[in-house]
Specification:
Largest sheet: 8 strands, parallel
Number of strands: 15
Helix content: 25-40%
Radius of gyration: 19 Å
Length: 319
């Protein structure tokens, strides 16, 4: 019997704190060779795109995949979770919120290891769906007091700031330019759909940590070359996948302006095998793409909680 979990079930079960903990365990397992992850694959048609991410986390007794479609009519996400012991289908999980919170949780995990411990101020460029969990995540791992938010739509950023101030209990201030969001940031988050850089690297405050999560296409980027050159270390959730789809790094590489010598996997950072900064003046960067390991690990956590709380609908399929 497979357990079917819809969006409302996932919302009721997942907390940011538990998501970060599960991700930390899973990236540790990946570093130790006790988990496996494959890069995203895509099938592109005239009408839309099918995206698939796969991973196995034997320590959580699962393997599985997330599949999602992006069409003009919308985006639809689902995770299929299988037993790593006998291959049975364990769960079918609607995965919009799951994807958002695991993305914010992974950025939070990177922030935990890369940002200065005394970081208190966030700059955020973007005020959409992903921006919510990005701000939630960094507030979970650092004592954030204030955030400055820029997006192109004034009404959108004002509503976002009001909602996040109420949710998180910190000062969240809308600003009229990206420069205002960047210049004071101890932690800078970019969560946009832009194809071109959204700020200039010269604006960055010494010691800033950046979470850039907007693009996972090789033709799009949020970061300029100056930002990359100022970074002491660049970390991504999967370097293998980044070499296929991280436009922030691939575009300057293809122009002969960037080399990958200083790019590391988040698993290496979590395992403590690479130095993340020499001083408080160093700038660090996490380039998030979203990988199957994150989806499968968090889905396993949701499935276990759902069983404990007897949530979801059982379906007699593939048994």
């Amino acid at each position: 019997m497979a357990l079917v979990l819809c969006e409302k079930d996932v919302h009721s079960l997942l907390s940011m704190r538990n998501t970060i903990d599960v991700l930390e365990q899973s990236f540790t397992a990946l570093a130790d060779g006790r988990a496996a992850n494959n890069p995203r694959s895509r099938i592109i048609t005239e009408q839309g795109i099918l995206h698939v991410l796969t991973a196995a986390v034997p320590g959580l007794h699962v393997l599985g995949l997330k599949a999602y479609t992006t069409f003009r009519e919308g985006v639809r996400y689902v995770v299929l979770l299988f037993s790593a012991q006998d291959g049975q289908l364990l769960a079918i999980i609607e995965a919009d919120w799951l994807g958002s919170i695991r993305t914010g949780g992974t950025s939070a995990l990177a922030t935990k290891y890369l940002a200065r411990s005394e970081a208190t101020t966030v700059g955020l460029i973007g005020a959409g769906h992903q921006a919510v969990t990005q701000l939630m995540g960094v507030c979970e791992v650092r004592s954030i007091r204030s955030a400055y938010v820029y997006s192109r739509k004034e009404r959108e950023r004002e509503l976002f700031c009001a909602e996040m101030k109420k949710m998180l209990g910190i000062e969240v201030t809308p600003v009229a330019t990206p420069h205002e969001a960047v210049e004071a940031a101890d932690i800078l988050i970019t969560a946009t759909t832009s194809s071109d850089p959204v700020f200039y690297g010269e604006w960055l405050k010494p010691g800033c940590h950046i979470n850039a999560i907007g693009s996972n296409w090789d033709t799009k980027r949020e970061l300029d070359l100056a930002t990359l050159k100022r970074c002491y270390i660049i970390v991504t959730d999967s370097r293998e996948q980044a070499e296929m789809e991280a436009g922030d790094l691939l575009i300057p590489t293809n122009q002969g302006l960037f080399e990958w010598d200083n790019v590391y996997d988040l698993a290496e950072v979590v395992a403590g095998s690479v130095p993340v900064r020499q001083s408080n003046e160093d700038i660090t960067l996490y380039k998030g793409l979203g990988i199957g390991l994150e989806d499968v690990a968090v889905a396993a956590h949701v499935y276990n909680l759902a069983q404990q709380q007897q949530l979801g609908e059982k379906l007699d399929i593939l048994s």
